[in-house]
Amino acid sequence: MIYEKTAKFRDDFLWGSASAAYQVEGAWDKDGKGESVWDVYTRIPGTTFKETDGKVAVDHYHRYKEDVALMAEMGLKAYRFSIAWTRIYPDGKTELNEAGLQFYEQLIDELIAHNITPVVTLYHWDLPQHLQDLYGGWESREIIEDFNRYCVTLFKRFGDKVKHWVSLNEQNIFMTLGYVTAMHPPAVKSHKRMLQANHIANVANATVIESFKQYVPDGMIGPSFAYGPVYPYSCDPQDILSAENAEDLNNYWWLDVYCKGEYPTFAFKYYERLGIAPVIEEGDLELLARAKPDFIGINYYQTGTVASNPIDGVGPSEVMNNTGKKGTAKENGLPGVFKNVKNPNLETTNWDWAIDPTGLRVGLRRLTSRYNLPILITENGLGEFDQLEENDVVNDSHRIDYLSAHVLACKEAVTDGVDLLGYCTWSFTDLLSWLNGYQKRYGFVYVDREENDEKELRRIKKNSFYWYQNVIESNGEDL
Ligand code: BGP
After folding, report:
1. What is the mean pLDDT of residues 216-238?
2. Of all residues in the chain, what percent carry a pLDDT higher than 70?
């Protein structure tokens, strides 16, 4: 559908930006904070790009007022950030750390004082290391109670001020990278263990959603899913079937559980045949069916294109482009099921991520037709090298082009009938990319630091800062 005139964004549209505690805060051991699995994992040589870590990150912990002032200057309507579980319960379960609660209380108050809606993520991957050591983290059902205790503490403390909450960030990514490709902690390579841990995470997610309804009945909660809609490489029926396989295994395996409380049939049968389907305990399915999210949060970066893959074909890749050298990503897939291929119609970033604004519209429509829930875009953005030029200029026209095409796709999706609550870019300031260091930048605000040199961590507004300011001011009319 090509529109001559598109609909307008709602008046209370949440023009936002997102971050995560480990990627911005630093202060990794301040004020009673416990160690997270990322604090520990990044100490293992070779796990991250040039051994980068979040010990200092962009020091948001100490500079949050300066950062919020920049958000206010831009006119940002919403700021999505995550709370570090280890600041609230240093060992994940026993003693509550008041200093941790105070830090987030101050941040929330500072945002509200500047008319910025806080959107709080409960879990953005920084699991308390103690829980990993004690019972294997997400592999034990003990985590359900511990996670719920931590979340209820936050609901009680902040529920009157914070009405937008994200439960788990990208469960599909932290499970797949943590337990299949072994690129994230706990760096396990076992599909079976992944599926079991993932089921436990589903139950934890549902438990917390139920608690939320009790403690913050006038709020909204949903998970943030890393959504990559899938295209078939061609109209060869084998490619079409491969795309169906990939949609079920990569997307609906999570989304159907969140929104319908059930696993997709084909995917479950497939895992059962392999003898690796998760063990589902009595009561789990009833809970999953009850605990519906209020919205679907999606983190959208790219679509995937798949072709058929022979039974002796390519398997999961352990090589990722984390250097920014275009063309270094390796082909990967599931033998006999599908393989990921390059889409010849799409440009890619220097990290080999396909640039596809239309794919965002396609995805928003698919989700709306399948689940009919409001959608909040909780992340979208372009990771690129940016150059700090003379007189503090950062000309990131590549980012402006990327974001403006994606906002336009959102507008078209709204015209199509999608109930879109808001759009958060990734990210507001530059920050640490988990596996790609500091050189892969996403922000509207440049932070002057390098991989292993923190310099002064000076904040410098990029050209995209002024562009987004204008987008917000015009409620998305002026792109
Ligand atoms: C998402 C994560 C974010 C962020 C973003 C960019 O998967 O939720 O935390 O890192 O992707 O990814 P990357 O840093 O790998 O470029």
Report:
1. 98
2. 100
Please tell me the distance between residue 448's alpha carbon and the centre of ligand 1 in angstroms.
20
Instruction: Classify the phi-psi angles of 125: left when phi > 0, otherwise alpha if psi is within -120 to 50, otherwise beta.
Output: left
pLDDT in tens, 240-295: 999 999 999 999 999 999 999 999 999 999 999 999 999 999 999 999 999 999 99
pLDDT tops 90 at residue 330: no
What is the CB neighbour count within 10 angstroms for residue 283? 9
In percent, the amount of the chain with pLDDT more than 90 equals 98
- Residue 169 CA, closest ligand 1 atom number: 8
**Identity (one letter) of the amino acid at 422?**
G
Task: Determine which residue's CA is closest to atom 14 belonging to ligand 1.
Answer: 433
Task: Look up residue 195 and give its two tokens.
Answer: 């599926």
Q: Across the strands, what pairs with 227?
A: none
CB of 154 within 6 A of ligand 1: the answer is: no
Sorting pLDDT into bands at 50, 70 and 90, what band is 466?
Answer: very high
Calpha distance 461→219 (Å, rounded):
33
Express each pLDDT in 433-458 by its tens digit. 999 999 999 999 999 999 999 999 99
319 pLDDT exceeds 90? no
Per-chain mean pLDDT for the chain: 97
Mean pLDDT of 134-157: 98
Residues 476, 422 contacting (CB under 8 angstroms) = no
- Ligand 1: nearest atom to the Cα of 435: 15
Residue 434 Cα, ligand 1 centroid: separation in angstroms? 7
Right CATH for 14-474 from 3.40.710.10, 3.40.50.300, 3.20.20.80, 3.40.50.12280: 3.20.20.80
Q: DSSP letters along 385-407, please?
A: ----BGGGB---HHHHHHHHHHH
If pLDDT is split at 50, 70 and 90, which confidence band does 177 have? very high
Q: Could you tell me the pTM of the whole model? A: 0.97
**pLDDT of 4 higher than 80:** yes
Can you tell me whether residue 41 is helix, strand or coil?
Answer: helix
Is the CB of 426 within 6 Å of ligand 1?
A: yes
- C-beta of 35 in contact with ligand 1 (< 6 A): no
E runs forming strands in 27-142: 78-82, 117-123
Q: Residues 103, 31: contact at Cβ < 8 Å?
A: yes
169: Cβ below 6 Å to ligand 1? yes
- Ligand 1 mean position, distance from CA 382 (Å): 10
CA angle 71, 74, 78 (to 5 degrees): 50
**Is 379 labeled as catalytic in the residue annotation?**
yes
Selection from 154, 127, 153 nearest residue 138 by Cα:
127
Domain residue spans of the chain: 14-474
Using alpha carbons, select from 113, 117, 96 the residue that is nearest to residue 12.
Answer: 117
